[in-house]
Amino acid sequence: MTRSVAQLIMAITIIISAVSxxxxxxxxxxxxxxxxxxxxxxxxxxDWSKFKHIENPTGMTAYAWPxxxxxxxxxxxxxxxxxxxxxxxxxxxxxxxxxxSASEYATLEFYKLDDFHNAEVRVTQTKANWYTTKHSxxxxxxxxxxxxxxxxxxxxxxxxxVLDAEAEYLASMKGARGALTKNIVATLVPKSIIKSIDIxxxxxxxxxxxxxxxxxxxxxxGCYISSKKTTANHVTHAIDSWGLIYDKDExxxxxxxxxxxxATITTFGNPSTHxxxxxxxxxxxxxxLIDNKTILEMNFPVGDQxxxxxxxxxxxxxxxxxxxxxxxxxxxxxxxxxxxxxGGDDGGFNVGIGDWGEDIITIxxxx
Length: 367
Known about the structure:
The protein is elongated. A 5-stranded antiparallel beta sheet has the order 3-2-5-9-11. Helices cover 11% and strands 36% of the residues. Helix 1 (3-21) crosses helix 2. 30% of the residues are buried. The longest helix has 19 residues, at 3-21. The protein has 3 helices and 20 strands.
């Protein structure tokens, strides 16, 4: 290679380096351009103390949106639970964090993650063979897994922060020791946007009950992530897992003629259109008796019992340190008919499933 050709190649390299960096740095163009993002590490501390009594996260995800619409959203994932580092260019950013990563949720779907204010999470749809929706637009939604979120707006990354980060990086490339400086901008405290509801059906002559199915109608389909407010769209949560609790007298002796069946579900809460009226939510309950053919069905308006549901986030604790959640209590209007069991006995639970379909439970477990 001739000397003139070598000089030409070197000149071209210097020009490309200067143009691509677009920064006036007095040293290390080549090293800086290899690194090249021209960002500053911004540390967001995360305090999970308001969520750990519900679930212990094993990681978290952060999304950051520049207020400059010409830039794109950035995503960061870590298994470090105490903080997360966002490498951001100069400018202002909005961000939120949540436990785990979006791909780890089987019952949740994330939408519009390119838009901080409209990013949304919804329950996935499912089927319940026994349940027929009343309206064509009614969806049966899965029970959501636990999700905790917190957000922050107007994170500011200055040009000086970026220049300092670049200078530290170049110094480290030349042998300087020590961790790069991280600018701590906030401490976020994620809280659950998922609620839990305990449902109790009080029943007389409960000894004649074989199994139960239920559906809690007109619950929120999803939630806006940044505001933590539920959407207007609604779903039904089908309930096919119940337990039996017998009443007890003053001496603690069980009365097997009276008791409750109990179920616990998770939900995003009430849709944004909820007005706190009884008819805003309907609880459909279907009972199969021990003769394996008698089916009783009842609708209970329960919206008034869930009027404050969206105020719950798992941070209110009882004396034992367990989260306090709302309860639904309804009463079967009449004692169950005294029917004969399939086996000819007068009482007890029977395994037969009758015509209920494939997804029913057949024996109520004692709680």
